[in-house]
Amino acid sequence: MRASEVFEVTMEHLLLVGISVAVALAIATPLAILLLTRARLRRWTLAAVNVIQTIPSLALFGLLLPIPLIGGVGKQTAIIALVLYALLPIVRNIVVGILGVDAGVRESAVAMGMTASQVLWQVEVPLAIPTILAGVRIATVATIGTATIAAAIGGGGLGTFVFRGIASANMTTVLAGAIPAALLAIIADEVLEWLERRLSY
Amino acid sequence: MARTTVVLLSVLLAAAGCSHKPRVVVGSKNFTEQVVLGEIIAAQIERRLGVEVDRKLNLGGTLLAHEALKSGSIDIYPEYTGTALTAVLRQPPIKDSKAGYQKLQDEYRKWQLEWLPPLGFNDSFAMVVMADVAREQNLKTISDAVKRPWKLGVGYEFVERPDGLKGMQEAYGLKLNGEPVTMDLGLLYQALRSKKVEMAAANATDGMLAHQEFTILEDDRHYFPPYECSLVVRGQILQQFPQLKGALEELSGKISNETMRKLNAMTDIDHKAAADVAREFINTWK
Amino acid sequence: MPSYHRWTSRIKVNVPALIEFREVAYRVGGRDILRGVNLTIEDHETLVLLGRSGSGKTTLLKMINRLLEPSQGTITFQGKALSDWDPIRLRRSIGYVIQDGGLFPHHTVEQNVGLVPRLENWPVEKTRARVKELLEAVGLAASTYGARYPRQLSGGEKQRVGIARALAADPVLLLLDEPFSALDPVTRFGMQKHFAELTKSFGKTAIFVTHDIREALMLGTRIAVLKDGRIELLVSPKEFAKADTPEAMAFLGTLEGGAHAGV
After folding, report:
1. How many C-beta atoms surround the C-beta of residue A119 within 10 A?
2. Model-level pTM?
3. A with B: how many residue pairs have Cβ under 8 Å apart?
4. What is the pLDDT of residue B245?
5. Which residues from C are below 8 Å from A when comparing CB atoms?
């Protein structure tokens, strides 16, 4: 196993994580905004996403396999599972972040004649960014870990080394998968946390 | 008060430790055939010896199972001669099955482990392609296939093992289209069907091969050694249970390639529970 | 509608009251917060709504810029029913100041003060000039304070920015909800004086909610005493000293030396 192989697989892993978090963000944002004003729908949606989280990761991969179009062996099934997992922390934090904006600030914004859309995009979202980023951070770090399971269904990534290492009782191979994964998680956590602090008011 | 508690706790812990009734622990690796064999062994022991059997099936790979056996976590598991020689003993493969078997018996005795006589089938690595692809491109042997690169699907062991990918590429000059795609063995046929991979390093007795959809490419250069399946057992457990050897040797020679493939198909295609398949099988003889 | 005759440079004009409340009630969660309120507010006055917590004074205030809608009754603003006003246009003509200022933490002082002008698409230069003018008017040098963030300001400074912001687009009316309550007495006194000068020099109409009798007497041209959702008394500060209604007297009793309105 050469260094270039580890590098390639790490890039593959990053790709899985990057695409999944990006898609989750793209779905979560309009979804969360929709939920801001609909308390009942919000409760149901958050409950549903919560349930998805409780499904053990390997099981979710397994559940998606037989579904036509989105299932089957390979990356897209893995990405769909990873997106589903990343939804909860992101949706919840967008909602909590926006609803948690100081009531006085929100009231002032309305009282000065900002439209609902202006209040949302010029006041609430910018102030909610640290909380939203925290959600993205949690989702990213978790996805880096969960993405190792993708190897079981042909999704590639650092899990490939872990599974192969276990099967051949080769600790070096296992570590070749585990260490980069851990490093990725740490780096992602640090970078996003720094970003959170930079954007806090 | 404190003293009483400590005494009580110690008694409880000791009791928990000795609550072992005599039992046998059966292990297996983590693909269908192994699980079915594990259930067959367990069912056989249960009906012949009437002792409790613990099943530790689905262990994550050859070396894991081997370590479990050596350390006594499991007492028996089914292994293949070729695999044991190359992956466990890290020796060059031996083409002569008798010589290979002898070597294994000698080496394993050093660990107080015994190889029982073979069950009767040879589960070799098999390079599999879709039957229509084989027809279109006129492929019968692996040598036929090397004229073009292939997107290869593999389980967790094929890439790492000395009797796996590397040796095969050396023996045949097979070219790959990109890195091999790793996945759980059970998914290889799905991957072939959905064209996610073009060739799979599967196993010769896989249930799915009962379907006419798939073709095994003949190993014309005889690269793969024999992989005869036998039971590997801890010597100690054979001593502990004198009737155990006899019960297990009953299975020798009873499972041909055909039979194994059929049993695998019942589990993989008909989705019967491995335990049920096992019980039905051993009931075919008294 | 009732009109109020005024002399304005020898021309007699019928000017409708700026705001009129008619039989306004507000009920929420089974509780009556406001009951049958009738009130007229004139241009250029500073009307103080004085009352205890729960008296309905803030609720009354918030109905004017439609942050709350009455359960009953009508309110008119500049002669037009509030319900006929576009809420956005309405609010942009009304300045709103709350305790703690409600400043946007992610905007600079300059951006905060210039908010409504920007919403109204004023030219950049005009906005900048206006912000400078107002900051100086509230006693904050634009060059020093303009680029600061609210978290870098003291309580008094925040309130001053809040007032500057409320005045920025030259609104017809100012609504203030206990703006100085959270300040220390010394700062508060300074702000009160400053505010009185500001409203006079800018010629603004203001409605000021407070529970502080001294503040009411100091700032109001008229004082409305609220109790349990009703206006108990509506008089000038001078007449307040002689008030004989229960709630008014209760407030007077809190002044040193009893019923003595020292301003």
Report:
1. 19
2. 0.76
3. 77
4. 94
5. 65, 67, 87-92, 94, 96, 98-106, 115-116, 119, 149, 151, 165, 175
Decide if A111 touches C, using CB distance below 8 A. Answer: yes
Beta bridge partners of C16: C3
Mark whether A and C touch (3+ CB pairs within 8 Å). yes
Burial status of residue C242 (CB atoms within 10 A of its CB: 0-12, 13-18, 19 or more): exposed
Beta bridge partners of C209: C49, C177
**For C42, what's the count of Cα atoms within 13 Å in the CB-facing half-sphere?**
13
SS3 A75: helix
pLDDT in tens, A163-201: 988 877 788 999 999 999 999 999 999 999 999 998 887
Nearest Cα residue to C101 out of A199, A99, A107, A128: A107
Touch between B and C (at least 3 CB pairs under 8 Å):
no
Examine the pLDDT at C258 and tell me if it is beyond 60: no
Say if residue C262's pLDDT is above 80: no
Q: Is B190 on the interface with A (CB under 8 A)?
A: yes
Per-residue pLDDT of C230-256, as tens digits, reads: 999 999 999 998 888 999 999 988 886
Residue B286 has pLDDT above 80, yes or no: no
Cβ-Cβ contacts under 8 Å, A65 against chain B: 187, 190
Domains of chain B from N-terminus onward? 23-122+227-282 (3.40.190.10), 125-217 (3.40.190.120)
Asked whether the beta carbons of B83 and B53 are under 8 A apart, the reply is: no
Cα separation of C199 and C44, whole Å?
8
**Domain boundaries, given as residue ranges, for chain A:** 3-198
Judge contact between B94 and B103, C-beta under 8 A.
yes
Nearest in space to B182 (alpha carbons), one of B206, B165, B162: B165
| Nearest chain B residue (CA) to A62 | B187
> Bridge-partner residues for B228, per DSSP?
B122
> For the residues C98-119, what does the mean pLDDT come to?
93
Cross-chain CB nearest to B160 (options A72, A154, A164):
A164
Residue type, C46: T
ipTM, two decimals, is: 0.85
B70 touches chain A (CB under 8 A): no
In this predicted structure, the answer to whether residue C9 has a pLDDT above a threshold of 60 is: no
For residue B14, the model assigns a pLDDT of: 62
Compute the nearest-CA separation of A99 from chain B (Å).
43
Neighbours of chain C (3+ CB pairs under 8 A): A
Tell me which CATH homologous superfamily contains domain A3-198: MetI-like (1.10.3720.10)
Question: What is the least distance, in Å, from the CA of A66 to any CA of chain B?
Answer: 9
Residue A21 has pLDDT above 60, yes or no: yes
CB contact under 8 A, B187 and A73: yes
Residue B84 half-sphere exposure, CB side, CA atoms within 13 Å? 30
B67 contact residues in A (CB cutoff 8 A): 169
What proportion of chain C, given as a percentage, has pLDDT over 70? 91
